[in-house]
């Protein structure tokens, strides 16, 4: 997935191709300003105001207690970039906004947009990080309310890839037990259990995360098959030949190489023979020669983000498979996700001998 300016006309294509237009401004000024427009509109409930039909800007402003003039300008910006449609003098939701920007949609990203206000503040540290390279480990500074916003945001972020992972992951036949390490909201475990009717899942999560995570999980109505247990995967024993499958989704970017290797070794011990260890995460480039590959671009950006906000960064497929092999597992070919471009599901099986 390529970020930034994209040509929509022949003239725009030529301008980009011939380096006539200032692409850095399209990648920065236009991008960050429109991002804040979407976030502000979502937080103010402008999309929710259109849930049951079209309205004028004045009607939307009246219903959300916003300024009519400012509301109209924001609606026009959203309209210009394909987030709304306009018919008979009224703004309406389109397929994009109805799917992603209503809080009660099963595909909603409203909570993730809310958490991005916190992430926005974090990224102000890029300037100093470029000089000192020091990670800020922002997660340790979250207040209880910010933890809540974080977990709801991660739930929204996981909706599409969790469904794809559930369909494309290859679990052992008749798999019965799944350990989801750091699974928080539990949506990956939920979707895997829905895909495999005989599966029961345990989510290992830090104690401070469980209250909100359990609240989010309760909405799925899977309490008889998916449950939380408090613990720390880096410090706690995971058991011996207990699970048919172990999943770590969007977590290894918080750990360094030594921690990820030790975790893979713990997972191997916890797996039954023929059990599968699944790692899902954004993938970084292994060298500058890979920088132009479409399936590496997101991972390259997130590598910088996690190096600032955590203590590590994204990892390459080769790095993950090396940990798996060093732990005694047999890696499979990675599965590149379509719903989260730049991310892959990297599985490995514990041999029977």
UniProtKB/TrEMBL annotation:
InterPro entries: COMT-like (IPR016461), COMT_C (IPR001077), COMT_dimerisation (IPR012967), SAM-dependent_MTases_sf (IPR029063), WH-like_DNA-bd_sf (IPR036388), WH_DNA-bd_sf (IPR036390)
Gene3D superfamilies the record matches: Vaccinia Virus protein VP39, Winged helix-like DNA-binding domain superfamily/Winged helix DNA-binding domain
Molecular function terms, GO-annotated: methyltransferase activity
Family matches, as CDD domains: AdoMet_MTases (cd02440)
UniProt domain O-methyltransferase dimerisation: residue ranges: 31-101
Positions of the O-methyltransferase C-terminal domain: 144-292
GO BP: any one term: methylation
Pfam families, A to Z: Dimerisation, Methyltransf_2
Keywords, ordered alphabetically: Methyltransferase, S-adenosyl-L-methionine, Transferase
Superkingdom to which the source organism belongs: Bacteria
The protein's name in its UniProt record: Methyltransferase domain-containing protein
Lineage of the organism: Bacteria, Pseudomonadati, Pseudomonadota, Alphaproteobacteria, Hyphomicrobiales
């Amino acid at each position: 997935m390529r970020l930034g300016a994209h040509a929509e006309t022949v003239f725009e294509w030529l301008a980009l191709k011939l380096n006539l237009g200032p692409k850095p401004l399209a990648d920065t000024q236009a991008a960050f300003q429109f991002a804040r427009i979407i976030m502000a509109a979502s937080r103010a409930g402008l999309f929710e105001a259109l849930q049951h039909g079209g309205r004028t800007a004045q009607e939307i402003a009246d219903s959300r207690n916003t300024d009519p003039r400012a509301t109209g300008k924001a609606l026009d910006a959203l309209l210009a970039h394909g987030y709304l449609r306009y018919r008979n003098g009224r703004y309406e939701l389109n397929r994009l906004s109805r799917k992603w920007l209503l809080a009660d949609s099963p595909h909603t990203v409203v909570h993730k947009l809310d958490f991005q206000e916190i992430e926005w503040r974090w990224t102000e540290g890029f300037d100093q990080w470029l000089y000192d390279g020091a990670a800020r480990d922002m997660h340790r500074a979250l207040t209880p309310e910010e933890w809540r916003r974080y977990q709801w945001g991660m739930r929204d972020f996981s909706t599409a890839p969790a469904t794809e992972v559930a369909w494309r992951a290859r679990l052992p036949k008749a798999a019965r037990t799944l350990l989801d390490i750091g699974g928080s909201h539990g949506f990956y475990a939920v979707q895997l259990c829905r895909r495999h009717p005989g599966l029961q899942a345990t989510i290992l999560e830090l104690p401070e995360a469980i209250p909100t995570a359990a609240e989010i999980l309760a909405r799925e109505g899977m309490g008889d098959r998916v449950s939380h247990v408090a613990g720390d995967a880096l410090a706690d024993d995971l058991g011996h030949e207990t699970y048919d499958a172990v999943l770590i989704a969007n977590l290894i970017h918080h750990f360094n190489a030594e921690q990820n290797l030790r975790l893979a070794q713990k997972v191997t011990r916890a797996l039954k023979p023929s059990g599968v260890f699944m790692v899902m995460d954004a993938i970084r480039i292994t060298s500058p020669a890979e920088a132009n590959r479409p399936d590496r671009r997101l991972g390259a950006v997130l590598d910088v983000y996690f190096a600032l906000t955590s203590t590590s960064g994204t990892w390459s497929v080769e790095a993950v498979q090396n940990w798996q092999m060093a732990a005694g597992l047999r890696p499979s070919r990675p599965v590149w996700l379509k719903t989260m471009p730049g991310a892959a599901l990297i599985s490995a099986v514990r041999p029977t001998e």
